[in-house]
Each structure stands twice: as structure tokens, then as C-alpha cells.
């Protein structure tokens, strides 16, 4: 037979002809008070409605109430605070309180029951349920009052005893359910909650209880059994070896789970020999439309509650357990999702780190052969006759080597910005100098394509605060793209103006334009428009990404506009306007190159081509040169040759360049030597490590031959040339050069 639903309560008949009792309704919303009055008018009792906890306390001082309906969420004094004050009055210390709330959880439930609440009703209320529950306490109050009035008769005594038993049973019922709620709500582990529920029911309800949960989404499929043994209660689970439920019990559980309805079986009366228990019941665990499992109990009448009460309470316990299991299920899913996201995040971070490591290593490996090529080109330029075709070939090779250097540096700059390794060298300078340097970088490309470049800068001085080399890199990149993606003979415009507290630089071209589908992601890494098989424009798709990130680092922004294919494009760069105070012109006053002095130079590099190229370049400049191919040879040559200058590679076999530099500096003859690091590693920590090891200058391959030779010429006895990094980007070149002062 089906069990009573969890919401069912005990309904006592209202006594006819009895004097109406007082019912207190406390809610701050007039419309809800009207609803409660309408629902409870059928009970024929005195309804006292107030709109605050303070008013409720005043009414309690005036009269005694049979039951109090108390809203939880009220301004000033909320329901819980009001209940606590009500309990402090002797007259209302044991008055039944039913909390009305639109939100219920285990925390609120535990707090309410600790204040002596007899029940919670979820808003919006079901009229029949509200009338039934209030009617119970009205009846109890009437019975209590009748007993007091008829205390001199035997019938009154019997009625009082009956009312007492009902009240005690209600109190025990409420206390048990409150305890069950606290216990089930105290854990978010499904296995622990299953065991706690089974232990709660044995031996209070019967000799055996089984909690069965099935949920494919959370990957839960198991059971927990509690049964009486000689010395107490034993817990078993499906995880134990050879553990299994009786077929009849398993079938009963599955039937309840599939149907969603509770069932009760009187085995003796129905002749169920497959069930060795006299009376069994099973109820489902339901959360919304989801069936989570079922509860099976072998009941024993007379243990804690009579059969009707026990059957009804199983439904109440199952409802509370359903909430606990649903919370634990959701918590488990959340934890699993968190773990999965953390794993994905770790994989993404690992992939990003591998990408950065690959870019750094690729840069180093490409720079070594590129350094040899650049040096060889410079040697050929210095010794070759001034013959037309040979000069053309040298210029082509030099130009393409610079292009390769620019592509490598763009890739590395994007990676450095992503890792926060870009360090900006701030200074204040006039906008016209930034524009002049940017234009100078693309002058050759514009002339090669027979294009015209018009530039407009306001007459008023506009000041910018930032890294002039990096901002030159941004503007020159936009101008370079404008020239690259525009046909020969077309016009390009660079306009600068002031808008409020911002400087706006606009690059406008008449080139191939930007497709509408590409425009929203034009600044994404590696984003490029459609290319022909000839890839005439070249590029890696990182220049605009780098330009935007550098602009953001300066507190500005960059936007792109285009009406479509072959309609040209417009790029706008916005930068904060700086004050003139503390401004300084970028760069220094040019000085004539000092007279060359013959120096003894030791070159240590394991790349024979690179070492030979530098040797040839230095000999052309009249220096005496010796070459060593590893660290140990370099130390031996240093002691024997006693050079004025050491050009030392970092990535040497046997002994690395840092250790070689430290050992050389430790020797007496090493104190006044100009020591230059020439390496493929060019990040900030690499430069700092070189300075810490005793190097005076740090050059990143491929080094500019003119600056390398100039550094040697500037060196005087005692090392008067300024020591430090020689790998800052050069504003005059328009690309992130690897050499400079």
C-alpha cells in the first residue's frame, strides 16, 4: 500500500462549539497577511495579524496564542530574532511556531528548530497544507484548554493524557526530523551521507535499512546497508568483496526507483516467503524531476513510533535525505568540474610554456647561423670591389637578413609581453620626433614601391611619455603594413592631432583593405587575410598583435577600420598626452667616431663560421685577433695572448661563457679588459646574468657590425665606455634591433 506523502501531517478534528482560539500571524507584507487570513478563515478562529516582530511581542504580552505563523525575512527584527524573544516569555515559551519562508536550506532549518520551531512552510503556501498544519495546533490548544476546564472529570483527565501523548509524539517527531536534517546536512560526501542515513534508521525504525543511490551523471551507483547484530549495528556497502543484496530487496528498490512511488508490504499477511521480515517499506529519493534512488526499511512496530507514524515519517526522512543527496551530488559535480578545469588550465599553461621555450630556443638557433651570415655580408661589403651587380647582391642579402631578424624579434616580443618580461624605458619626448623616426624607418620601402607618404603633425608641441623605441616600433609597423599592402604608386597618409587629453595618430592607405570577417580579429595573434600562393606580402601575422600590446602597455589603444576588400584601411593609435615638465629629447648628440686604435681581440665561439666571420671583420678594422672554439681554449688563449678586448659566446661547450668570464675577471690581467657577451639569448634575465658574470656589454646575435666595431673604438684604457646592455631596440631602424647603446 502507498505511504503518506512527506508533507502529510496529523489532522485533528476541530472541536465544535469550542471557544475560538487566538492565532498570531506575523509578516511585513500586507498582501501576504491577506492571503493567510483568507486561507485560515475556514478554521473559524481569532486571527491576529501584525507586520513586525515588535508588534508581535506586544500582542504576546496581552494574550496567549494557540500557534504563531512567523515570516523569516522581515526588516528590523527577522523571524529568528523574534522567535528567540518570544521564547523568553513564560506565557509563550512553548507556543508552537511555524516559520514561513521562500528559501529553505539545512542551515536555516537547524537554526529554526534550535529555537523550538515545530515546522517550516515554503512560500507560496499550499492552502490545504497550511490549514491542516495550523488546525493541528489549534486542536491541540483546544484540547489543552478543555482539559484545564474539565480537570475535575475523568474524561477531562483522559483527554489531557491523550493530548499530552500527541504533543509528546509531535515533539519527538519534530526533534527526530530536526536531528536527521542536521546529520544529513553536515556532510557533502555521498558515501558518508548514505551511511549516516542507514545508521539513523536502525534500530529506531527497524532491524535493517538499505540506502540505494543511482545517478548516471554523477557516476553514482551503489548501496549502503545497516543491520542489527548481537553487539550493535553493522554497516555494509557494495564496495565490499562479494557483497550483494537479496534479490527480493533489490527488486523492491528498483520498482520504487522506476515508479517514483513508495510501497509498503505486510509480508506475513501477503504470504511473501522471499521477505523474511514481517513488515517492510520503501520510499524514493526525489529531487525535482530527478530520481536519485530509494530507501528500504524492515520496520518493527512499537520500536519508536507506531506503524502509521513510522510509515509517514519515512516519507519525511526521505524528503530531507533527497535534499542532502542532491546537494552532495551537485557538490561532487562541481568538484569534478573544478578538477577538470584545473587540468585543462595546467595543460594550457604547459602548452604556453612549451611554446615560449620553443620560441626562445628557435630564436637562439636561428640567430647563430644568421649572425654568421650578417658578419659575412659585412666582410664582403668591406672588401668587395664597387661593382654594380655585386653591390646589388650584397644589398639584397643585407636587406633580407634584416627582415629575418625582424621576424624573429616580433615572435619573441609577443611571447615576452605575454609573460610580462617587456621592460619599458620611459622618457618624455615631443610627438614630432616620434613621427620623424617612424617615417625614416619606412622611407626606403616607400621609395622602392614609388609610393607617396604625406605627414601632418600639429605646430603646437605635443608631449608623449613612454618608450620611444617601442612606440616607434608601433607606428613604423603600421606604416610598413600600409606600404606592404598597397599597390605601387599609391598614397599613404600619417596624421597626428590632439583630442582632449589624448594624442591620436592615424595611418590611412589606399591598399587591399580588410575583409569584414577578418576585421574583428585583425589584432589576434597570427591573424591574416587570404593570401595567394606567392605570399607576396610575407609576414607572420604577429606585427599588429605586438603593436596593440605595446600600445596597451603605454596606457593607449589602437583601432582598425576598413570598408572592405580593395577599399583601403585606417589605423588609429591613441596615446595619453603628457605634460611638458621633465621632458627630454630622445637620443643624444651625435659625435664623430673616434680614431681607430689597433687592439688585441680574443674571439671565443664554438661556431667556427661565426668566429671566422668576426675575425675577418676585426682584421679589416686593423685589429689583432685570436680565435678559441671552447671555454677551456679561451682561458688558455687569454693567459697567453693577454687581449684588450674579449668577444665571448655564452653557450660554449665544457665551460659556459658566464664561468669563463668570471675566471677571466679573477685574473690580474682581466680587470681592465673590455668583455663583450655575444649570444643568441636576449631576454632581460640573460642580460642581467651577463653583467653579473663580469661582462661590460651584452650583444644579441646577429650583432650590428658597425656598433660592435664602434664599441671597441670607444674603449679607452681603464674602460671608459659605458657598460651595460647593448641590445635595446633602436628607434632609427624601425624594428626591434638587437644592438645599441
TrEMBL record:
Q: Which organism is it from?
A: Variovorax ureilyticus
Q: Where is each Histidine kinase domain found?
A: 361-579
- Record-listed E.C. numbers: 2.7.13.3
Record-listed 4-aspartylphosphate modification sites:
71, 649
State the protein's name.
histidine kinase
Keywords, sorted A to Z: Phosphoprotein
Q: Where is the Response regulatory domain?
A: 22-138, 600-716
Q: What ranges does the record give for the region Disordered, renumbered to this chain?
A: 721-741
Checking SMART domains in the record gives: HATPase_c, HisKA, REC
Reactions catalysed, semicolon-separated, are: ATP + protein L-histidine = ADP + protein N-phospho-L-histidine
Amino acid at each position: 500500500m502507498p505511504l503518506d506523502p512527506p508533507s502529510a501531517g496529523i489532522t485533528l478534528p476541530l472541536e465544535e462549539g469550542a471557544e475560538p482560539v487566538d492565532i498570531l500571524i506575523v509578516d511585513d507584507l500586507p498582501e501576504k497577511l491577506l492571503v493567510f487570513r483568507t486561507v485560515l478563515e475556514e478554521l473559524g478562529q481569532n486571527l491576529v495579524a501584525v507586520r513586525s516582530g515588535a508588534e508581535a511581542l506586544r500582542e504576546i504580552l496581552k494574550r496567549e496564542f494557540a500557534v504563531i505563523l512567523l515570516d523569516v525575512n522581515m526588516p528590523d527584527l527577522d523571524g529568528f530574532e523574534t522567535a528567540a524573544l518570544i521564547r523568553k516569555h513564560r506565557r509563550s515559551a512553548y507556543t508552537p511556531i511555524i516559520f514561513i519562508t521562500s528559501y529553505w536550506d539545512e542551515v536555516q532549518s537547524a537554526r529554526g528548530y534550535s529555537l523550538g520551531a515545530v515546522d517550516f512552510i515554503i512560500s507560496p503556501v499550499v492552502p490545504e497544507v497550511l490549514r491542516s498544519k495550523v488546525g493541528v495546533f489549534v486542536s491541540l490548544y483546544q484540547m489543552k484548554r478543555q482539559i484545564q476546564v474539565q480537570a475535575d472529570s475523568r474524561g477531562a483527565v483522559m483527554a489531557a493524557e491523550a493530548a499530552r501523548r500527541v504533543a509528546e509524539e509531535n515533539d519527538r517527531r519534530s526533534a527526530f526530523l530536526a536531528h536527521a536534517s542536521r546529520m544529513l546536512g553536515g556532510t557533502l560526501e555521498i558515501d558518508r551521507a548514505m551511511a549516516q542515513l542507514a545508521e539513523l534508521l536502525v534500530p529506531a525504525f527497524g532491524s535493517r535499512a538499505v540506502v540505494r543511490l543511482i545517478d548516471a551523471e554523477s557516476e553514482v551507483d551503489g548501496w549502503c546497508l545497516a543491520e542489527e547484530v548481537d553487539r550493535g549495528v553493522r554497516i555494509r556497502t557494495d564496495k565490499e568483496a562479494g557483497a550483494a543484496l537479496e534479490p527480493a530487496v533489490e527488486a523492491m528498490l528498483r520498482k520504487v526507483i522506476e515508479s517514483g512511488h513508495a510501497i509498503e508490504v505486510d509480508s506475513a499477511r501477503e504470504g511473501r516467503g522471499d521477505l523474511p521480515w514481517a513488515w517492510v517499506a520503501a520510499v524514493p529519493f526525489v529531487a525535482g524531476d530527478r530520481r536519485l534512488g530509494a530507501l528500504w526499511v524492515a520496520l518493527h512496530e512499537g520500536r519508536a513510533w507506531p506503524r502509521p507514524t513510522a510509515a509517514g515519517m519515512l516519507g519525511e526522512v526521505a524528503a530531507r535525505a533527497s535534499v542532502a543527496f542532491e546537494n552532495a551530488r551537485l557538490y561532487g559535480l562541481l568538484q569534478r568540474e573544478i578538477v577538470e578545469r584545473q587540468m585543462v588550465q595546467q595543460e594550457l599553461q604547459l602548452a604556453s610554456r612549451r611554446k615560449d621555450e620553443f620560441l626562445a630556443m628557435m630564436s637562439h638557433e636561428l640567430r647563430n647561423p644568421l649572425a654568421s651570415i650578417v658578419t659575412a655580408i659585412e666582410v664582403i661589403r668591406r672588401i668587395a670591389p664597387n661593382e654594380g651587380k655585386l653591390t646589388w647582391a650584397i644589398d639584397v642579402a643585407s636587406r633580407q637578413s634584416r627582415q629575418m631578424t625582424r621576424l624573429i624579434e616580433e615572435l619573441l616580443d609577443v611571447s615576452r609581453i605575454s609573460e610580462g618580461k617587456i621592460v619599458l624605458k620611459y622618457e618624455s619626448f615631443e610627438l614630432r620626433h616620434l613621427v620623424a623616426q617612424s617615417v625614416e624607418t619606412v622611407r626606403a620601402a616607400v621609395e622602392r614601391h614609388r609610393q607617396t607618404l604625406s605627414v601632418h603633425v600639429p605646430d603646437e608641441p605635443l608631449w608623449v611619455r613612454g618608450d620611444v623605441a617601442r612606440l616607434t616600433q608601433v607606428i613604423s609597423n603600421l606604416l610598413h603594413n600600409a606600404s606592404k599592402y598597397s599597390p605601387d604608386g599609391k598614397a599613404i597618409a600619417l596624421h597626428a592631432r590632439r583630442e582632449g587629453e589624448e594624442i591620436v595618430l592615424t595611418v590611412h592607405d589606399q591598399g587591399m583593405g580588410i575583409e569584414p570577417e577578418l576585421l574583428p580579429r585583425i589584432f589576434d595573434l597570427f591573424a591574416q587575410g587570404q593570401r595567394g600562393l606567392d605570399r607576396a606580402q610575407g609576414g607572420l601575422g604577429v606585427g599588429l598583435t605586438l603593436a596593440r600590446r605595446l600600445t596597451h602597455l603605454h596606457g593607449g589603444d589602437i583601432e582598425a577600420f576598413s570598408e572592405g576588400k580593395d577599399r583601403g584601411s585606417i589605423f588609429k593609435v591613441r596615446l595619453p598626452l603628457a605634460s611638458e615638465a621633465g621632458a627630454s629629447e630622445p637620443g643624444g648628440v651625435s659625435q664623430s667616431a673616434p680614431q681607430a686604435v689597433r687592439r688585441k681581440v680574443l674571439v671565443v665561439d664554438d661556431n667556427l663560421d661565426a668566429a671566422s666571420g668576426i675575425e675577418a671583420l676585426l682584421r679589416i678594422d686593423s685589429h689583432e685577433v685570436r680565435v678559441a672554439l671552447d671555454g677551456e681554449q679561451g682561458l688558455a688563449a687569454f693567459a697567453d695572448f693577454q687581449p684588450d678586448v674579449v668577444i665571448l659566446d655564452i653557450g660554449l661547450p665544457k665551460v659556459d661563457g658566464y664561468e669563463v668570464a668570471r675566471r677571466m675577471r679573477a685574473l690580474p690581467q682581466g680587470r681592465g679588459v673590455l668583455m663583450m657577451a655575444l649570444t643568441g639569448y636576449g631576454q632581460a634575465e640573460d642580460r642581467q646574468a651577463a653583467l653579473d658574470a663580469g661582462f661590460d656589454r651584452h650583444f644579441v646575435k646577429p650583432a650590428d657590425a658597425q656598433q660592435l666595431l664602434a664599441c671597441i673604438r670607444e674603449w679607452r684604457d681603464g674602460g671608459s665606455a659605458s657598460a651595460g646592455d647593448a641590445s635595446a631596440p633602436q628607434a632609427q631602424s624601425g624594428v626591434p634591433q638587437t644592438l645599441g647603446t
